[in-house]
Structure formats: structure tokens, C-alpha cells
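Minutes, structural biology subgroup

Action item carried over from last meeting: produce the C-alpha cell record for OGDHL protein (Motacilla alba). EB confirmed the sequence was re-checked against the source entry. Recorded below for completeness.
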Amino acid sequence: VMSILLHGDAAFAGQGVVYETFHLSDLPSYTTNGTIHVVVNNQIGFTTDPRMARSSPYPTDVARVVNAPIFHVNADDPEAVMYVCSVAAEWRNTFNKDVVVDLVCYRRRGHNEMDEPMFTQPLMYKQIHKQVPVLKKYADKLIADGTVTLQEFEEEIAKYDRICEEAYTRSKDKKILHIKHWLDSPWPGFFNADGEPKSMSCPPTGISEELLTHIGNVASSVPVEDFKIHSGLSRILKARSEMTRNRLVDWALAEYMAFGSVLKEGIHVRLSGQDVERGTF
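Output recorded by EB:
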């Protein structure tokens, strides 16, 4: 499995979760062995100038906290983009570390149907309207090189338009939307009892009240005899014991019973995080 995250430039610089996940990226129990971050840098966050949105020159500077290589590439040059992406994939494959591709591009239309970017960004949008679209720019280059003919290019465009038009026409015939079709798995039978792997099928998970009571009693006892525990803790254990006796549960005891039942089946349970270590939860 390889994770690829797609970001906007303003979001990459402005969302704390990006910085936080970079710092998780190399922790022993949390690493994903390198994420490829692709930043679609259209140089405008909603309608804000970069100079009004962040303090550093590049939106990708936040990746420097883990020394991730950052490739800034002109998105108007598809071959350069492909080259950079293959280098990024190779980096991730070789070193299992994060890597960032900064696609420096622009946004031709507004943020949504109602947004007219000329109101807030007149100078930028005068330039953008003069800009030849990347598809035309690259097609002209390929035709000039003799790589494809004008006819081949037009046929490809027509073929793609036809796919879109046919799908659009078919969508009008849909009377009911089945959400589960969107969530379906490409492997038939993957989630059935006959399918593989077996761990994906979901057997009944209920357990007997007797076992719950046993777990509740263990959870409210002290494992070592004559062990002097903190009075605050003994209060919690006493309350837990009473709840078990009265057939009541709170959130913590319910979690305890869930973990206990899994442990009882011989499955290892690992809890991590600061609050777990100091016993808050």
C-alpha cells in the first residue's frame, strides 16, 4: 500500500494537520513508509494572494521539518511533471520517506460557479486569460514534433468527449441512487464468508453475560496481593466493581470489556498514546 495525498497550496500551508502528520511520518509505530504529497499550487487560496496567506515563500516549506525532498515543477510542462512524479515514486520506493511534488499552475475559473475572480484578482486574471491552456500547448508541441497528427489529436478529444456525454446521458436515466454501489469492492465475494481473506467476514461478536461479569470483576481488581494503590484509583476500581454488580457500564468499562473479550480470544491488544501510558483512558 502506498499513500498519495493531494493538497491545495493554501491548505498545505494553512492546515495544522499537514504539519502534525509530517511529524508522525517517521515515528516507529506510525510510519506509512513515506507518503507522496502532490500540491496543486494554483497560487491562490480561494481568492487570497500567497503573501496574505502565509509567511514563507513556498506553500511546501512546511515539509522541510522532516527534510522531505520538494520538487517544484511547471504544470504547463506535462513531460516535466511526469519526470518529477517518477523521481518522487523512486525516492519513496528507495528510501521509504515522504516526498512532495509542487505543481505550480493556475486556476482558470473561479472558486465555484458564483465566484468571479476578476473582482479580487484583476491583474492575475488578465494574465491567465491570455495563457494558452496546457492541453492545447502540449498538443501543438506534439503535432509540431510529428509525434501525433492533428487528426489523431482531434479523434482523442472527440473520443473523450463522447465518453463524458454518454455517461451524462445515462445518468439522467437513473431514478434511484444506490450508495452501496459506490462503496462496492472490485473483488466479488471479498466480504462474503466464502470469499478470501476470512478475516474480512464478520462472525457474530456477542459474548455471554457471564464472561462480561468476569471481565468486569478482573478490571476492578488489583492483580498483586497486598499492593498499596493510590486512593483515587481504589475509588475508581470500587465504582467499577459496583457497576459490574449492578449490570451497568460506562464508556471506560465498556471499552475494558471490549478489549478484555478480544484478549480472552488470544488476540494481542496494543494501546498507544500519551493518555494511555499515564492511564487517563
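Discussion: Residues 209-265 form one domain.
Next step: EB to file the record with the rest of the batch.
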